[in-house]
From TrEMBL:
Entry protein name: Glucose-6-phosphate 1-dehydrogenase
Class of enzymatic activity (EC top level): oxidoreductase
Database matches in Pfam families: G6PD_C (PF02781), G6PD_N (PF00479)
Protein encoded by which gene: zwf
Stretches assigned to the Glucose-6-phosphate dehydrogenase C-terminal domain: 192-485
Gene3D superfamilies (alphabetical): Dihydrodipicolinate Reductase, domain 2, NAD(P)-binding Rossmann-like Domain
Purpose: Catalyzes the oxidation of glucose 6-phosphate to 6-phosphogluconolactone.
Amino acid sequence: MEPTTFILFGATGDLAKRKIYPALYNLFIDQKLPESFSLIGLGRREWSDETFQANVEQSLRDFSRRESADTSKIKQFVEAFRYSVLDIGRKEDYQKLLQLVEEREQELNIPQNRLFYLSVGPEFFVPIADNIQSSGLGSTQGWKRLVIEKPFGHDLQSARELNEKLSKAFTEDEVYRIDHYLGKPMVQGLETLRATNPVLQALLKNRYIANVQITANETVGVEERAGYYDHVGALRDMFQNHLLQLLMMTAIQLPHGSNIDQMRLKKKQVIEALEPVRKQDVGLNIIRGQYQAGSIKGAQVPAYTSEPGIAADSTNDTFIAAKLQIDDYFWKGVPFYIRTGKRMMEKSTRIVVEFKDPIAQLGSVKDSSLQPNLLVIEMSPNESITLQLNMNDPHHKGEIKPVNIELHSSQNDLPEAYENLIHDAMNGDATYFAHWDEVELSWEWVQPILEAFEENLIPLYPYAAGSYGPAEVDALLAKDGYHWWFDSKPEQNSETQNNSTTYSMATL
Ligand SMILES: NC(=O)C1=CN([C@@H]2O[C@H](COP(=O)(O)OP(=O)(O)OC[C@H]3O[C@@H](n4cnc5c(N)ncnc54)[C@H](OP(=O)(O)O)[C@@H]3O)[C@@H](O)[C@H]2O)C=CC1
Ligand SMILES: O=C1O[C@H](COP(=O)(O)O)[C@@H](O)[C@H](O)[C@H]1O
Protein backbone atom coordinates (compact mmCIF):
# COMPACT_ATOMS: atom_id res chain seq x y z
CA MET A 1 0.00 0.00 0.00
CA GLU A 2 1.25 3.48 -0.80
CA PRO A 3 2.62 5.69 1.98
CA THR A 4 -0.25 7.77 3.31
CA THR A 5 -1.08 10.75 5.50
CA PHE A 6 -4.44 10.24 7.20
CA ILE A 7 -5.90 13.59 8.25
CA LEU A 8 -8.77 13.06 10.65
CA PHE A 9 -11.27 15.84 11.31
CA GLY A 10 -13.31 15.02 14.44
CA ALA A 11 -10.45 13.07 16.04
CA THR A 12 -11.82 13.77 19.54
CA GLY A 13 -15.33 12.52 18.73
CA ASP A 14 -17.39 9.44 19.35
CA LEU A 15 -17.09 7.78 15.94
CA ALA A 16 -13.31 8.13 15.92
CA LYS A 17 -13.02 6.52 19.31
CA ARG A 18 -15.55 3.71 18.78
CA LYS A 19 -14.87 2.78 15.17
CA ILE A 20 -11.98 4.52 13.43
CA TYR A 21 -9.10 3.90 15.89
CA PRO A 22 -10.04 0.25 16.53
CA ALA A 23 -10.31 -0.31 12.77
CA LEU A 24 -6.92 1.28 12.13
CA TYR A 25 -5.37 -0.72 14.96
CA ASN A 26 -6.71 -3.98 13.57
CA LEU A 27 -5.30 -3.08 10.17
CA PHE A 28 -1.97 -2.34 11.85
CA ILE A 29 -1.97 -5.71 13.62
CA ASP A 30 -2.84 -7.44 10.35
CA GLN A 31 -0.03 -5.53 8.63
CA LYS A 32 -2.46 -3.84 6.31
CA LEU A 33 -1.42 -0.26 7.03
CA PRO A 34 1.13 1.36 4.75
CA GLU A 35 4.67 1.02 6.04
CA SER A 36 5.02 4.79 6.02
CA PHE A 37 1.91 6.08 7.72
CA SER A 38 1.18 9.36 9.45
CA LEU A 39 -2.09 10.23 11.17
CA ILE A 40 -2.94 13.76 12.17
CA GLY A 41 -5.93 14.19 14.46
CA LEU A 42 -7.89 17.46 14.55
CA GLY A 43 -10.39 19.03 16.91
CA ARG A 44 -10.94 22.18 18.90
CA ARG A 45 -9.83 20.58 22.15
CA GLU A 46 -6.44 21.82 23.31
CA TRP A 47 -4.76 18.44 23.31
CA SER A 48 -1.05 17.70 23.07
CA ASP A 49 0.25 14.78 20.98
CA GLU A 50 0.64 12.82 24.21
CA THR A 51 -2.96 13.45 25.34
CA PHE A 52 -4.20 12.46 21.91
CA GLN A 53 -2.16 9.26 21.91
CA ALA A 54 -3.38 8.42 25.41
CA ASN A 55 -7.00 8.89 24.28
CA VAL A 56 -6.44 6.66 21.27
CA GLU A 57 -4.89 4.03 23.55
CA GLN A 58 -7.89 4.18 25.84
CA SER A 59 -10.31 3.81 22.94
CA LEU A 60 -8.48 0.65 21.84
CA ARG A 61 -8.78 -0.81 25.31
CA ASP A 62 -12.49 0.05 25.34
CA PHE A 63 -13.50 -0.82 21.80
CA SER A 64 -10.96 -2.98 19.97
CA ARG A 65 -12.22 -6.47 19.19
CA ARG A 66 -8.66 -7.74 19.52
CA GLU A 67 -8.25 -9.38 22.89
CA SER A 68 -4.57 -8.65 22.71
CA ALA A 69 -4.74 -5.01 23.66
CA ASP A 70 -1.00 -5.53 23.68
CA THR A 71 0.66 -2.51 25.29
CA SER A 72 3.85 -2.61 23.25
CA LYS A 73 1.93 -2.98 20.00
CA ILE A 74 -0.37 -0.12 20.94
CA LYS A 75 2.61 2.10 21.73
CA GLN A 76 4.14 1.27 18.38
CA PHE A 77 0.81 2.00 16.67
CA VAL A 78 0.23 5.42 18.25
CA GLU A 79 3.75 6.60 17.44
CA ALA A 80 2.38 7.57 14.05
CA PHE A 81 -0.25 9.85 15.64
CA ARG A 82 0.03 13.63 16.00
CA TYR A 83 -2.57 16.19 16.99
CA SER A 84 -3.24 19.73 15.82
CA VAL A 85 -5.84 22.09 17.27
CA LEU A 86 -8.14 23.18 14.47
CA ASP A 87 -11.38 25.11 14.40
CA ILE A 88 -13.11 24.30 11.14
CA GLY A 89 -13.91 27.94 10.40
CA ARG A 90 -10.41 29.35 11.14
CA LYS A 91 -8.29 29.64 8.03
CA GLU A 92 -5.03 30.06 9.94
CA ASP A 93 -5.49 26.63 11.55
CA TYR A 94 -5.28 25.04 8.07
CA GLN A 95 -1.91 26.74 7.49
CA LYS A 96 -0.63 25.28 10.73
CA LEU A 97 -2.01 21.91 9.65
CA LEU A 98 -0.33 22.13 6.24
CA GLN A 99 2.98 22.82 7.94
CA LEU A 100 2.60 19.78 10.21
CA VAL A 101 1.51 17.53 7.33
CA GLU A 102 4.54 18.57 5.29
CA GLU A 103 6.93 18.14 8.21
CA ARG A 104 5.70 14.61 8.80
CA GLU A 105 5.77 13.81 5.07
CA GLN A 106 9.44 14.77 5.00
CA GLU A 107 10.26 12.99 8.22
CA LEU A 108 8.61 9.73 7.12
CA ASN A 109 9.41 10.08 3.44
CA ILE A 110 5.75 10.09 2.44
CA PRO A 111 4.87 11.45 -1.01
CA GLN A 112 1.92 13.83 -0.92
CA ASN A 113 -0.77 11.16 -0.66
CA ARG A 114 -3.42 12.67 1.59
CA LEU A 115 -6.60 11.09 2.83
CA PHE A 116 -8.96 13.58 4.51
CA TYR A 117 -11.46 11.78 6.73
CA LEU A 118 -14.40 13.96 7.86
CA SER A 119 -15.73 12.43 11.07
CA VAL A 120 -17.71 15.58 11.87
CA GLY A 121 -21.27 16.80 11.44
CA PRO A 122 -22.43 17.20 7.80
CA GLU A 123 -22.71 20.99 8.19
CA PHE A 124 -18.89 21.01 8.20
CA PHE A 125 -18.31 19.04 5.00
CA VAL A 126 -18.35 22.03 2.65
CA PRO A 127 -16.33 24.48 4.79
CA ILE A 128 -13.68 21.82 5.32
CA ALA A 129 -13.49 20.92 1.62
CA ASP A 130 -13.22 24.64 0.72
CA ASN A 131 -10.49 25.24 3.27
CA ILE A 132 -8.55 22.18 2.14
CA GLN A 133 -8.55 23.66 -1.32
CA SER A 134 -7.79 27.27 -0.42
CA SER A 135 -5.05 26.42 2.10
CA GLY A 136 -3.03 24.39 -0.39
CA LEU A 137 -3.56 21.14 1.54
CA GLY A 138 -5.42 19.81 -1.48
CA SER A 139 -2.69 20.72 -3.99
CA THR A 140 -0.77 17.51 -3.75
CA GLN A 141 1.76 15.92 -6.06
CA GLY A 142 0.42 12.52 -5.03
CA TRP A 143 -3.27 11.68 -4.61
CA LYS A 144 -5.94 13.21 -2.42
CA ARG A 145 -9.14 11.57 -1.19
CA LEU A 146 -12.09 12.77 0.83
CA VAL A 147 -13.87 10.24 3.04
CA ILE A 148 -17.21 11.46 4.35
CA GLU A 149 -19.64 10.04 6.82
CA LYS A 150 -23.39 10.02 6.50
CA PRO A 151 -25.78 11.72 6.38
CA PHE A 152 -25.21 12.88 2.80
CA GLY A 153 -27.91 15.54 2.66
CA HIS A 154 -31.28 15.79 4.33
CA ASP A 155 -33.39 15.40 1.20
CA LEU A 156 -32.93 15.37 -2.57
CA GLN A 157 -32.29 19.08 -2.94
CA SER A 158 -29.83 19.41 -0.05
CA ALA A 159 -27.95 16.32 -1.23
CA ARG A 160 -27.63 17.84 -4.70
CA GLU A 161 -26.44 21.15 -3.28
CA LEU A 162 -23.90 19.38 -1.07
CA ASN A 163 -22.58 17.35 -3.97
CA GLU A 164 -22.29 20.39 -6.17
CA LYS A 165 -20.30 22.26 -3.54
CA LEU A 166 -17.99 19.36 -2.72
CA SER A 167 -17.28 18.83 -6.39
CA LYS A 168 -15.55 22.23 -6.50
CA ALA A 169 -12.74 20.84 -4.35
CA PHE A 170 -12.83 17.07 -5.04
CA THR A 171 -13.73 15.11 -8.15
CA GLU A 172 -16.24 12.24 -7.89
CA ASP A 173 -13.34 9.77 -8.07
CA GLU A 174 -11.78 11.40 -5.03
CA VAL A 175 -14.93 11.25 -2.87
CA TYR A 176 -15.51 8.14 -0.74
CA ARG A 177 -19.01 8.21 0.79
CA ILE A 178 -19.12 5.76 3.66
CA ASP A 179 -22.13 3.51 4.03
CA HIS A 180 -20.90 1.10 6.66
CA TYR A 181 -23.39 -1.58 5.57
CA LEU A 182 -21.34 -1.88 2.38
CA GLY A 183 -18.34 -2.71 4.53
CA LYS A 184 -19.97 -5.68 6.26
CA PRO A 185 -18.23 -8.87 5.17
CA MET A 186 -21.50 -10.65 4.37
CA VAL A 187 -22.68 -7.78 2.18
CA GLN A 188 -19.35 -7.75 0.37
CA GLY A 189 -19.72 -11.49 -0.12
CA LEU A 190 -23.21 -11.35 -1.67
CA GLU A 191 -22.07 -10.81 -5.21
CA THR A 192 -19.47 -13.59 -5.03
CA LEU A 193 -22.05 -15.91 -3.50
CA ARG A 194 -24.28 -15.48 -6.49
CA ALA A 195 -21.66 -15.15 -9.19
CA THR A 196 -19.64 -18.22 -8.18
CA ASN A 197 -22.59 -20.52 -7.48
CA PRO A 198 -24.45 -21.34 -10.69
CA VAL A 199 -27.14 -23.06 -8.62
CA LEU A 200 -28.01 -19.83 -6.91
CA GLN A 201 -27.48 -17.76 -10.00
CA ALA A 202 -30.02 -19.87 -11.83
CA LEU A 203 -32.61 -19.50 -9.09
CA LEU A 204 -32.32 -15.85 -8.15
CA LYS A 205 -34.91 -14.48 -10.54
CA ASN A 206 -38.63 -13.83 -10.67
CA ARG A 207 -39.46 -17.21 -12.15
CA TYR A 208 -38.55 -18.90 -8.88
CA ILE A 209 -38.78 -16.25 -6.19
CA ALA A 210 -41.95 -15.37 -4.33
CA ASN A 211 -40.61 -12.42 -2.37
CA VAL A 212 -37.51 -10.96 -0.73
CA GLN A 213 -37.48 -9.64 2.82
CA ILE A 214 -34.80 -7.30 4.13
CA THR A 215 -34.76 -6.59 7.86
CA ALA A 216 -32.51 -4.34 9.94
CA ASN A 217 -33.96 -4.39 13.43
CA GLU A 218 -32.22 -2.88 16.42
CA THR A 219 -32.88 -3.12 20.13
CA VAL A 220 -31.23 0.20 20.91
CA GLY A 221 -33.30 3.36 21.09
CA VAL A 222 -32.23 6.87 20.22
CA GLU A 223 -29.23 6.58 22.61
CA GLU A 224 -27.36 9.88 23.12
CA ARG A 225 -28.15 11.09 19.61
CA ALA A 226 -31.49 12.81 20.19
CA GLY A 227 -30.39 16.06 18.52
CA TYR A 228 -29.47 14.23 15.35
CA TYR A 229 -32.06 11.47 15.27
CA ASP A 230 -35.16 13.54 15.96
CA HIS A 231 -34.50 15.50 12.73
CA VAL A 232 -33.77 12.42 10.71
CA GLY A 233 -35.86 9.41 11.69
CA ALA A 234 -35.62 5.84 10.45
CA LEU A 235 -36.33 6.82 6.85
CA ARG A 236 -33.26 9.03 6.51
CA ASP A 237 -31.06 7.34 9.11
CA MET A 238 -31.33 3.76 7.81
CA PHE A 239 -33.69 3.37 4.87
CA GLN A 240 -32.45 5.91 2.31
CA ASN A 241 -28.88 4.67 2.65
CA HIS A 242 -28.21 1.28 4.29
CA LEU A 243 -31.40 -0.50 3.29
CA LEU A 244 -31.52 0.72 -0.28
CA GLN A 245 -27.86 -0.29 -0.58
CA LEU A 246 -28.78 -3.77 0.69
CA LEU A 247 -31.54 -3.91 -1.88
CA MET A 248 -29.13 -2.95 -4.67
CA MET A 249 -26.57 -5.50 -3.51
CA THR A 250 -29.26 -8.21 -3.38
CA ALA A 251 -30.72 -7.47 -6.77
CA ILE A 252 -27.71 -6.75 -8.97
CA GLN A 253 -26.77 -9.32 -11.54
CA LEU A 254 -23.09 -9.26 -12.34
CA PRO A 255 -20.73 -11.73 -13.93
CA HIS A 256 -17.93 -12.89 -11.61
CA GLY A 257 -14.88 -10.67 -11.70
CA SER A 258 -16.74 -7.52 -12.71
CA ASN A 259 -14.94 -4.26 -12.15
CA ILE A 260 -16.01 -1.26 -10.12
CA ASP A 261 -17.58 0.53 -13.10
CA GLN A 262 -19.75 -2.47 -13.95
CA MET A 263 -20.78 -2.85 -10.33
CA ARG A 264 -21.77 0.81 -10.10
CA LEU A 265 -23.63 0.71 -13.38
CA LYS A 266 -25.62 -2.36 -12.33
CA LYS A 267 -26.43 -0.91 -8.92
CA LYS A 268 -27.61 2.24 -10.56
CA GLN A 269 -29.76 0.24 -12.96
CA VAL A 270 -31.44 -1.53 -10.03
CA ILE A 271 -32.41 1.68 -8.31
CA GLU A 272 -33.47 3.26 -11.59
CA ALA A 273 -35.78 0.31 -12.14
CA LEU A 274 -37.51 0.74 -8.77
CA GLU A 275 -41.14 1.54 -9.36
CA PRO A 276 -41.63 5.09 -8.05
CA VAL A 277 -44.07 5.76 -5.22
CA ARG A 278 -46.38 8.70 -5.71
CA LYS A 279 -46.90 10.90 -2.68
CA GLN A 280 -50.62 10.20 -2.64
CA ASP A 281 -49.93 6.42 -2.69
CA VAL A 282 -47.41 6.33 0.11
CA GLY A 283 -50.00 4.93 2.52
CA LEU A 284 -50.47 1.85 0.32
CA ASN A 285 -46.93 0.60 0.52
CA ILE A 286 -45.24 2.31 3.43
CA ILE A 287 -45.81 1.91 7.17
CA ARG A 288 -44.22 4.27 9.67
CA GLY A 289 -44.13 3.86 13.42
CA GLN A 290 -42.79 5.25 16.67
CA TYR A 291 -41.90 3.23 19.75
CA GLN A 292 -43.84 3.44 22.96
CA ALA A 293 -42.69 2.28 26.39
CA GLY A 294 -42.11 -1.45 26.64
CA SER A 295 -39.67 -4.08 27.70
CA ILE A 296 -36.71 -5.56 25.86
CA LYS A 297 -35.11 -8.72 27.21
CA GLY A 298 -36.75 -8.09 30.59
CA ALA A 299 -35.71 -4.43 30.93
CA GLN A 300 -38.27 -1.62 30.90
CA VAL A 301 -37.52 1.12 28.39
CA PRO A 302 -39.26 4.49 27.92
CA ALA A 303 -41.30 5.69 24.97
CA TYR A 304 -39.44 7.61 22.25
CA THR A 305 -41.11 10.85 23.30
CA SER A 306 -39.89 10.35 26.89
CA GLU A 307 -36.27 9.91 25.85
CA PRO A 308 -33.90 12.70 26.95
CA GLY A 309 -33.75 15.45 24.33
CA ILE A 310 -36.87 14.34 22.41
CA ALA A 311 -39.89 16.65 22.32
CA ALA A 312 -42.98 15.18 23.99
CA ASP A 313 -44.97 15.81 20.79
CA SER A 314 -42.34 14.54 18.35
CA THR A 315 -43.80 12.80 15.30
CA ASN A 316 -40.47 11.40 14.19
CA ASP A 317 -40.44 7.88 12.73
CA THR A 318 -38.40 5.25 14.57
CA PHE A 319 -39.69 2.44 12.33
CA ILE A 320 -40.35 2.13 8.64
CA ALA A 321 -41.45 -0.75 6.45
CA ALA A 322 -41.99 -0.64 2.72
CA LYS A 323 -43.00 -2.79 -0.21
CA LEU A 324 -40.93 -2.10 -3.30
CA GLN A 325 -40.96 -3.50 -6.82
CA ILE A 326 -38.11 -3.61 -9.29
CA ASP A 327 -39.36 -3.32 -12.82
CA ASP A 328 -36.65 -5.21 -14.70
CA TYR A 329 -36.19 -8.50 -16.49
CA PHE A 330 -35.01 -10.41 -13.42
CA TRP A 331 -37.23 -9.07 -10.67
CA LYS A 332 -40.51 -7.90 -12.19
CA GLY A 333 -43.36 -9.19 -10.05
CA VAL A 334 -41.24 -10.02 -6.99
CA PRO A 335 -42.11 -7.83 -4.00
CA PHE A 336 -39.22 -6.66 -1.83
CA TYR A 337 -40.36 -6.03 1.75
CA ILE A 338 -38.00 -3.89 3.76
CA ARG A 339 -38.18 -2.87 7.39
CA THR A 340 -36.03 -1.25 10.01
CA GLY A 341 -36.78 -0.04 13.50
CA LYS A 342 -35.35 0.93 16.83
CA ARG A 343 -36.33 -0.75 20.11
CA MET A 344 -37.38 -3.94 18.39
CA MET A 345 -37.53 -7.34 20.05
CA GLU A 346 -34.08 -8.36 18.88
CA LYS A 347 -31.11 -7.18 16.90
CA SER A 348 -31.25 -8.80 13.50
CA THR A 349 -30.02 -7.81 10.09
CA ARG A 350 -30.90 -10.34 7.44
CA ILE A 351 -32.08 -10.96 3.92
CA VAL A 352 -34.59 -13.75 3.33
CA VAL A 353 -35.32 -14.97 -0.16
CA GLU A 354 -38.55 -16.96 -0.21
CA PHE A 355 -38.88 -19.28 -3.18
CA LYS A 356 -42.13 -20.03 -4.93
CA ASP A 357 -43.89 -23.27 -4.15
CA PRO A 358 -43.64 -25.27 -7.38
CA ILE A 359 -46.36 -27.70 -6.30
CA ALA A 360 -48.84 -24.92 -5.72
CA GLN A 361 -47.77 -23.39 -9.02
CA LEU A 362 -48.68 -26.56 -10.85
CA GLY A 363 -52.16 -26.29 -9.39
CA SER A 364 -51.93 -29.43 -7.25
CA VAL A 365 -53.51 -29.51 -3.83
CA LYS A 366 -51.43 -27.42 -1.47
CA ASP A 367 -49.69 -29.50 1.14
CA SER A 368 -49.83 -27.33 4.23
CA SER A 369 -46.98 -29.19 5.89
CA LEU A 370 -44.61 -27.99 3.20
CA GLN A 371 -42.61 -24.91 4.00
CA PRO A 372 -41.22 -22.85 1.16
CA ASN A 373 -37.55 -23.07 0.38
CA LEU A 374 -35.71 -20.14 1.88
CA LEU A 375 -32.29 -18.67 1.40
CA VAL A 376 -31.39 -16.73 4.53
CA ILE A 377 -28.42 -14.40 4.71
CA GLU A 378 -27.73 -13.28 8.26
CA MET A 379 -25.52 -10.29 8.88
CA SER A 380 -26.20 -9.64 12.52
CA PRO A 381 -25.93 -10.68 15.32
CA ASN A 382 -24.09 -13.57 13.61
CA GLU A 383 -23.04 -14.13 10.04
CA SER A 384 -24.43 -17.17 8.28
CA ILE A 385 -26.09 -18.41 5.13
CA THR A 386 -28.91 -20.92 5.48
CA LEU A 387 -30.84 -22.85 2.90
CA GLN A 388 -34.16 -24.25 4.05
CA LEU A 389 -35.28 -27.40 2.24
CA ASN A 390 -37.98 -30.02 2.90
CA MET A 391 -37.19 -33.64 3.81
CA ASN A 392 -38.86 -36.76 5.11
CA ASP A 393 -38.86 -36.98 8.88
CA PRO A 394 -37.28 -40.41 9.58
CA HIS A 395 -39.01 -40.57 12.99
CA HIS A 396 -42.51 -39.98 11.61
CA LYS A 397 -42.74 -41.76 8.32
CA GLY A 398 -44.56 -39.84 5.63
CA GLU A 399 -44.20 -36.53 7.41
CA ILE A 400 -42.18 -33.83 5.80
CA LYS A 401 -40.27 -31.28 7.77
CA PRO A 402 -38.06 -28.35 6.98
CA VAL A 403 -34.34 -28.85 7.18
CA ASN A 404 -31.91 -25.98 7.43
CA ILE A 405 -28.49 -26.31 5.95
CA GLU A 406 -26.53 -23.61 7.63
CA LEU A 407 -23.12 -22.37 6.66
CA HIS A 408 -21.42 -20.12 9.13
CA SER A 409 -17.96 -18.83 9.39
CA SER A 410 -15.83 -20.42 12.06
CA GLN A 411 -13.70 -17.31 12.13
CA ASN A 412 -14.66 -15.10 15.00
CA ASP A 413 -12.29 -12.34 14.08
CA LEU A 414 -13.85 -11.29 10.80
CA PRO A 415 -12.93 -7.73 9.85
CA GLU A 416 -15.44 -5.12 10.86
CA ALA A 417 -17.11 -2.87 8.31
CA TYR A 418 -14.89 0.12 9.13
CA GLU A 419 -11.75 -1.95 8.77
CA ASN A 420 -12.73 -3.04 5.28
CA LEU A 421 -13.77 0.43 4.22
CA ILE A 422 -10.80 2.33 5.62
CA HIS A 423 -8.46 -0.20 4.05
CA ASP A 424 -10.22 0.18 0.70
CA ALA A 425 -10.13 3.98 0.87
CA MET A 426 -6.38 3.98 1.55
CA ASN A 427 -5.97 1.57 -1.35
CA GLY A 428 -8.03 3.76 -3.67
CA ASP A 429 -10.73 1.13 -4.12
CA ALA A 430 -14.17 2.76 -4.07
CA THR A 431 -16.17 -0.37 -4.97
CA TYR A 432 -17.92 -0.48 -1.61
CA PHE A 433 -18.54 3.24 -1.28
CA ALA A 434 -21.73 4.95 -2.40
CA HIS A 435 -21.38 6.68 -5.75
CA TRP A 436 -23.19 9.99 -6.17
CA ASP A 437 -25.54 8.48 -8.79
CA GLU A 438 -26.78 5.90 -6.26
CA VAL A 439 -27.14 8.50 -3.53
CA GLU A 440 -29.06 10.86 -5.77
CA LEU A 441 -31.37 8.14 -7.09
CA SER A 442 -32.01 6.90 -3.54
CA TRP A 443 -33.01 10.38 -2.42
CA GLU A 444 -35.16 10.74 -5.53
CA TRP A 445 -37.04 7.54 -4.68
CA VAL A 446 -37.45 8.50 -1.04
CA GLN A 447 -38.46 12.14 -1.62
CA PRO A 448 -42.25 11.57 -2.02
CA ILE A 449 -42.20 9.54 1.20
CA LEU A 450 -40.40 12.33 3.05
CA GLU A 451 -43.04 14.75 1.80
CA ALA A 452 -45.92 12.46 2.76
CA PHE A 453 -44.44 12.14 6.25
CA GLU A 454 -43.95 15.89 6.58
CA GLU A 455 -47.49 16.58 5.42
CA ASN A 456 -48.80 13.86 7.72
CA LEU A 457 -50.53 12.06 4.87
CA ILE A 458 -50.12 8.68 6.52
CA PRO A 459 -50.59 7.52 10.11
CA LEU A 460 -47.73 7.27 12.56
CA TYR A 461 -48.45 3.93 14.18
CA PRO A 462 -47.35 3.36 17.77
CA TYR A 463 -45.60 0.10 18.63
CA ALA A 464 -44.46 -1.30 21.93
CA ALA A 465 -40.73 -1.36 22.52
CA GLY A 466 -39.69 -5.00 22.40
CA SER A 467 -42.13 -5.90 19.61
CA TYR A 468 -41.65 -6.29 15.86
CA GLY A 469 -43.15 -2.93 15.04
CA PRO A 470 -46.74 -1.85 14.47
CA ALA A 471 -49.30 -4.59 13.79
CA GLU A 472 -49.99 -2.98 10.40
CA VAL A 473 -46.61 -4.15 9.15
CA ASP A 474 -47.81 -7.73 9.12
CA ALA A 475 -50.77 -6.71 6.97
CA LEU A 476 -48.38 -5.28 4.37
CA LEU A 477 -47.29 -8.86 3.61
CA ALA A 478 -50.52 -10.63 4.53
CA LYS A 479 -52.41 -8.89 1.75
CA ASP A 480 -50.01 -10.57 -0.70
CA GLY A 481 -50.32 -13.91 1.11
CA TYR A 482 -46.95 -13.77 2.89
CA HIS A 483 -45.59 -13.22 6.37
CA TRP A 484 -42.28 -12.07 7.82
CA TRP A 485 -39.94 -14.95 8.42
CA PHE A 486 -38.20 -15.58 11.72
CA ASP A 487 -40.14 -13.16 13.89
CA SER A 488 -40.45 -15.28 16.98
CA LYS A 489 -44.19 -15.04 17.24
CA PRO A 490 -45.53 -18.46 18.21
CA GLU A 491 -48.59 -18.21 16.00
CA GLN A 492 -46.63 -17.48 12.83
CA ASN A 493 -43.53 -19.49 12.43
CA SER A 494 -43.97 -22.21 14.97
CA GLU A 495 -43.63 -24.98 12.45
CA THR A 496 -40.42 -23.67 11.05
CA GLN A 497 -39.06 -22.49 14.35
CA ASN A 498 -39.83 -25.60 16.32
CA ASN A 499 -39.83 -28.48 13.93
CA SER A 500 -36.98 -27.77 11.64
CA THR A 501 -33.68 -29.56 11.88
CA THR A 502 -30.51 -27.59 11.33
CA TYR A 503 -27.36 -29.07 9.89
CA SER A 504 -24.55 -26.67 10.58
CA MET A 505 -21.35 -26.51 8.65
CA ALA A 506 -18.52 -24.21 9.60
CA THR A 507 -16.45 -22.84 6.78
CA LEU A 508 -12.69 -22.54 7.11
N1 LIG B 1 -21.11 8.13 16.29
C1 LIG B 1 -21.59 7.23 15.46
O1 LIG B 1 -21.86 6.09 15.81
C2 LIG B 1 -21.82 7.58 14.03
C3 LIG B 1 -21.52 8.83 13.54
N2 LIG B 1 -21.69 9.10 12.22
C4 LIG B 1 -21.36 10.41 11.68
O2 LIG B 1 -20.00 10.72 11.96
C5 LIG B 1 -19.82 12.10 12.18
C6 LIG B 1 -19.19 12.33 13.54
O3 LIG B 1 -20.04 11.82 14.54
P1 LIG B 1 -19.61 11.69 16.07
O4 LIG B 1 -18.19 11.32 16.20
O5 LIG B 1 -20.63 10.84 16.68
O6 LIG B 1 -19.80 13.19 16.61
P2 LIG B 1 -19.24 13.82 17.95
O7 LIG B 1 -20.16 14.93 18.30
O8 LIG B 1 -18.91 12.81 18.97
O9 LIG B 1 -17.84 14.45 17.48
C7 LIG B 1 -17.78 15.58 16.66
C8 LIG B 1 -16.34 15.90 16.35
O10 LIG B 1 -16.34 17.08 15.58
C9 LIG B 1 -15.40 18.01 16.14
N3 LIG B 1 -15.89 19.36 15.92
C10 LIG B 1 -17.14 19.82 16.13
N4 LIG B 1 -17.19 21.13 15.82
C11 LIG B 1 -15.97 21.49 15.38
C12 LIG B 1 -15.38 22.69 14.93
N5 LIG B 1 -16.09 23.82 14.82
N6 LIG B 1 -14.10 22.68 14.59
C13 LIG B 1 -13.35 21.56 14.68
N7 LIG B 1 -13.84 20.38 15.09
C14 LIG B 1 -15.12 20.35 15.45
C15 LIG B 1 -15.37 17.66 17.60
O11 LIG B 1 -14.14 18.04 18.15
P3 LIG B 1 -13.98 19.13 19.32
O12 LIG B 1 -15.14 18.95 20.22
O13 LIG B 1 -12.66 18.78 19.96
O14 LIG B 1 -13.94 20.41 18.62
C16 LIG B 1 -15.48 16.16 17.57
O15 LIG B 1 -14.22 15.57 17.39
C17 LIG B 1 -21.21 12.71 12.00
O16 LIG B 1 -21.36 13.09 10.67
C18 LIG B 1 -22.15 11.54 12.30
O17 LIG B 1 -23.38 11.70 11.66
C19 LIG B 1 -22.12 8.13 11.33
C20 LIG B 1 -22.43 6.87 11.76
C21 LIG B 1 -22.35 6.51 13.15
O1 LIG C 1 -25.81 4.20 10.55
C1 LIG C 1 -26.43 3.78 11.50
O2 LIG C 1 -26.38 2.45 11.77
C2 LIG C 1 -26.65 1.97 13.07
C3 LIG C 1 -26.91 0.48 12.92
O3 LIG C 1 -25.77 -0.15 12.43
P1 LIG C 1 -25.54 -1.72 12.65
O4 LIG C 1 -24.28 -2.01 11.92
O5 LIG C 1 -25.43 -1.91 14.14
O6 LIG C 1 -26.73 -2.43 12.11
C4 LIG C 1 -27.83 2.67 13.70
O7 LIG C 1 -27.92 2.31 15.07
C5 LIG C 1 -27.66 4.17 13.61
O8 LIG C 1 -28.83 4.81 14.09
C6 LIG C 1 -27.41 4.60 12.20
O9 LIG C 1 -27.05 5.98 12.18
